[in-house]
Design a protein that fits this description.
about 190 residues, alpha+beta
Length: about 190
């Protein structure tokens, strides 16, 4: 069954990156519902390497502020929630739970390069699922890549050993952006059928 036009509009056609947030809070129940959708998206061998740190307080955002590029500070500080989208480089330690095939854990444990590539690729994929799940729940999503990953890892991820990938601001948009959507490449410019 395919989504109807209203669903496609919500996820893609009318969805825009927010420029301002309203004061409506994003509750813990919504964050749990969000993750429950994200975790269902496919990953290689069901490896599920993404890890998420939800910053919901002003104090947590202040800890993140020094790691941000100047252009991202205001947008992040005003967002109700900022998510550190990270991945666990030792994700394969959970493979016994996630994949019943006994040899899968060993594939990654024996090959650091394969494990790093898999964690980065699939963690990014799961971050993309979070953007789409947020939109499906009526939230707006603002992905950010202008930050110092080492500072974020030292401040928030050191105890777990996770690695930062990107930041994602979540909340309820304060109206549509005042400018038209930026252009996108057409099919013939971006695609080849073989």
């Amino acid at each position: 069954m395919a989504l109807d036009d209203a669903g496609l509009d919500l996820l893609f056609r009318n969805a825009r990156t927010p420029v301002a947030w309203n004061d409506r809070p994003v509750g813990t129940d919504t964050l749990r519902q969000l993750y429950d959708l994200v975790r269902l998206g496919p990953t290689s061998g069901n490896c599920c390497p993404a890890r998420f740190v939800f910053l919901t307080t002003e104090g947590a955002r202040e800890r993140l502020r020094p790691a941000l590029s100047a252009g991202n500070v205001q947008r992040m500080m005003t967002a109700p929630v900022t998510v550190i989208v990270a991945h666990d480089p030792l994700f394969f330690e959970r493979m016994d739970t996630l994949n019943p095939q006994a040899h899968v854990r060993q594939w990654f444990a024996a090959d650091v390069g394969l494990a790093e590539e898999t964690a980065q690729r699939n963690g990014t994929l799961q971050g993309g699922y979070m953007i789409m799940a947020a939109r499906a729940l009526g939230l707006s999503a603002l992905p950010l890549s202008g930050f110092d990953a080492a500072m974020v890892e030292d401040a928030f991820l050191a105890n777990q050993g996770w690695q930062a990938n990107f930041l994602l601001c979540l909340g309820y948009s304060d109206g549509p952006p005042p400018t038209p959507r930026a252009p996108r490449l057409g099919f013939d410019d971006a695609c080849v059928i073989v």
